[in-house]
Amino acid sequence: MTNYHEMKIGIIADSSCDVTEELQSKLHVTLIPFQMDINNHNYVDDGTVNIQEFINEMKISKETPKSACPSIGEYEEAMRQFDVCFVITISSRLSGSYNSACAAAQMISEDASNHKIFVVDSKSASCGETAIALFINDLIHQGVDPDEIFKRAEEFVEKQLTLFTLIDLDNLFKNGRISKFSKITSSTFNLRPIMKANDGEIELLKIARGTKKAFTKMVEMMNDFTKNAKMDSLRLIMTHCNCESQAMQIKEKLLECCNTLKEVIVIPTGALSSMYANDGGIIMACLPDNEV
């Protein structure tokens, strides 16, 4: 029987997984960066991008920002640092990151090494990935067998709800991530679509008139989603793009309305998430219960 307690176990994620310095000190997740291009200006999503300047450049650009997922080689190099690793990627329906990670894992397995690699398609993005990383980290520290961790992580993915509302949907629309209808809806009559990740793709749920009403509706929806859990048992992760004050107000409302939440962690978006969330975007992810 393999003794995993003597092995180096780690978590790897692409840079859609948003973390703060405080969270990183807990997770020690190895982040593999996406790259973005705006007007031939290349950005590497390695934590050094000035998000305000990045947003400003997107606003003045006449061209659609583009992103490139991590390469197979980048994943392979990171994977070889661990005996056992869990790799979390943005939804395979939105990017080639998952395929790159799987190809790297296959290459390592073919050289008869003792590495054990588990690749998790988050079927989400941003805080959806962060929530999975925290869940896996908890299980690692509990000493759960890696095969069982992977099984439970996949169950987590299927149960997790990722909700979001964006003020500016241009980049999602131009990159083919949402329908033309959703784009037109958001720019007409101050209507704000509330969307969710559905099996890795983006689904329109509701439309609210105005940003404040959209935030209120998201809180109500999350409360309904989690209401059957035990009191003070759930963790919700929320990311925001350049709108910390609004995010903190939503956090207060969530903790006031949802008595099943034990904590709400608020994180600013990195460059890749900011590219799609755009200025003022709010994303939140949570499980309906803690029975995974």
TrEMBL record:
Domain of life: Bacteria
Key words of the record: Lipid-binding
One Pfam family matching this protein: DegV
PANTHER family in alphabetical order: DEGV DOMAIN-CONTAINING PROTEIN DR_1986-RELATED, FATTY ACID-BINDING PROTEIN TM_1468
Name of this chain's protein: DegV family protein with EDD domain
